[in-house]
Amino acid sequence: MDSTSQKLVHSFGALADLGQEIANPNEFNEMVRTSLHLLLGTLAIRRGAVAQCLSGKDETECLAVWGLGDAFQSKLIVSETERNAFLTSGLSKLSIEERNPHFAAFLDRHHDELQSQGIELVIPMVVRGELTGLVLLGGKASGDAFTDDDLDVIRAMVRHVGVGIHTHQLFDQVEQRAEENRRLYEELRAIYRDTVRAFAAAIDIKDKYTQGHSERVGKYSEIIARELGWNNEEVEGIAIAGYLHDIGKLVVERDIINAPYKIDAKQSSELNRHPVAGFEILAPIQHPYADIPLTAKYHHERMDGRGYPYGLSGEQIPLGARIVTLADSFDAMTTDRPYKTRKIFSEVVEDFRRNTGKQFDCQVVLALCRALLKEMDGSGTDRRMTKMLGKNYLVSERDTPLLTQFMSELDPNKHIAVASSV
Amino acid sequence: MGESIALSIRSHCVGTTAVIYASDYLNKLTGERIERECKDRLNSGCRALVIDFSDTQLVNSIGISILMGIIDIAEKSDARVVFADVNNQTMQLFEMLGLTRHVVLAKNEQEALTTLTGFSVQTKAVSH
Predict the structure, then answer these.
(1) Cα–Cα nearest to A242, from A264, A227, A259, A223
(2) Distance from CA of B65 to the nearest CA of A (A)
(3) Residue A358: how many other CB atoms lie within 10 Å
(4) Which of the residues A17, A262, B17, B36 could staple to B48 if both were Cys, CB 3.0 to 4.6 A apart?
């Protein structure tokens, strides 16, 4: 093989390797370093650097350096005028020994430093009409000057390197935008949560006897769902459903909600409209979580089919609604109302014993009991229920055996859907 | 004579000369291992490097660049570099690219060591 053919084969091999390297998206700095190696090795050039133009700035930063001293200044200043000159000159070389008038200022600024480092050529990387960066080269191992053939090879390889860097910059921009979108999405979720809280507060203000009820139901629902192994997204959704479960009360007359006496059948019928009214309010809204309107609609259904408004039973009732049902009742039992004081814990357990499988889903009751046990024996980190119930409400020595005994009596399979046995 | 295999690169020392065996394909991976081995040998006091190409079938562009780097490092350490047992094709490549201007060439490892011994004796004679 004659030397020209061998040179061509060697250059083609390098170009193929360079193509592979640039297509590898893994490690950007390593890609640039290897690309520089390939460029230098193709013509046995002893020194070189690849610098990228910094977005919105007049300077470059070095991405890879080979064979240059430690003192090599990594920043080159490229003014707007020089940038345009590089663009219009295409991929032509800028020999630092040539006094090209378009680059006079650039050369005045950097000539001495580049010459002292043995740099002979400055080659612009131009991709899609933008100056992506500069490649600096100098010192062929043969000691010969760069020939026109050498420059053709260099131009072809520099174009490849430029495309690699440009592609990486595009990926960076996409990632930045994706990050920005993630942040905006988080902000929107936070606004959504705050809005829901505000709604919950509005619902509870209407019912002067149950201040904070919706928020507590949201929290109990969240704790139960977490205990059932739901993921973060689902847990957040059920908390929102808890906050909003009584939103339908906004359309019920305040006098009925706040009646300090037993309401009559007509008033009761009016009050019982609130689950469907809640569904109608929530259904048109695009919630980031599933089933929130349905949870409001079904939170007064019972496992035995004796609830309202539809008399659904067992697994006809979505699990979310079964969770909110228990959370709602648990809060009702454990908070004082003007017409009755709250139940002591043993009475709550007794209520659970009577109603599990009838009003409440057994799995859900067990989950709440497990969460309560964890707070009492200190095996969990969550103390929210203790805080909501008041610090003297649960007494571990007294209530743990009570709860453990009750849990041992429950058979989840037996209590899931008992409507047919009622 | 201490022989070592660092990340599959064979090498050993003869006095203050390190003999490093290049692999069958000198590319980025094997080149960087050879480069590291050469640096380690120079740092531990070797004053000459013999790179034995007897197993080497092919050297790609990165291999060339790394070899130039090794030559640079050796020059800075005042150490000599000998390429031994280079096949014809690789020799043509080295000559075409001008690498042969910066290294001594030897038919094989033995000749490389002899050349370096002669050089060492000559240097001593001159310095005396």
Answers:
(1) A223
(2) 4
(3) 17
(4) B17
| Chain B hits for A3, Cβ within 8 Å | 92, 96
Which DSSP state fits A114?
H
Residue pair B103/B83 in contact (Cβ under 8 Å)? The answer is yes
**Amino acid present at A387:** K
Nearest to A42 by CA among A24, A69, A70, A21: A21
Query: Which chain B residue is nearest to residue A1, measuring alpha carbons?
Result: B89
Residue B123 has pLDDT above 70, yes or no: no
The amino acid present at A71, given as its one-letter code, is: A
Q: Which of B61, B96, B101 sits opposite A38 (nearest CB)?
A: B61
Cβ(A164)–Cβ(A22) under 8 Å?
yes
Percent of chain A at pLDDT > 90 equals 49
What pLDDT, in 10s, does the model give residues A372-388?
Answer: 999 998 888 889 999 99
Cβ–Cβ gap A44/B28 under 8 Å? no
Which of B62, B72, B92 is the closest to A41 by Cβ? Answer: B62
**Residues A47, A241: Cα–Cα separation, whole Å:** 66
CB contact under 8 A, A44 and B99: yes
What letter does residue A344 receive in the DSSP assignment?
Answer: P
Give the strands of the sheet with B9-14, arranged side by side: B3-6, B9-14, B17-21, B48-52, B80-84, B104-106
**How far apart, in whole angstroms, are the C-alpha atoms of residue B111 and residue A59?**
52
Q: Are A87 and A129 in contact (CB under 8 A)?
A: yes
Residue A70 has pLDDT above 80, yes or no: no
Q: How far does the CA of residue A137 sit from the closest CA of chain B (Å)?
A: 13
Chain A interface with B: residues with Cβ < 8 Å: 1, 3, 6-7, 10, 13-14, 17, 34, 37-44, 46, 66-67, 140-144
Per the structure block, which two tokens stand in for A81?
């005028």
Q: How does the average pLDDT of chain A come out, rounded?
A: 87
Q: Are B110 and B52 in contact (CB under 8 A)?
A: no
Q: Residues of chain B whose C-beta is under 8 A from some C-beta in A?
A: 28, 60-66, 68-69, 72, 89, 92-93, 96-99, 101-102
pLDDT in tens, A286-332: 888 878 999 999 999 999 999 999 999 999 999 999 999 999 999 99
The interface predicted TM-score of the complex, written ipTM, equals 0.83
Query: Contact B98/A46, CB-based, under 8 Å?
Result: no
| Candidates B63, B72, B97; nearest CB to A142 | B97
Question: Any residues with CB less than 8 A from the CB of A198 and at least 6 apart, and which?
Answer: none
Q: What stretch of H or E contains A370? A: helix A362-377
Residue of A nearest to B69 (CA): A67
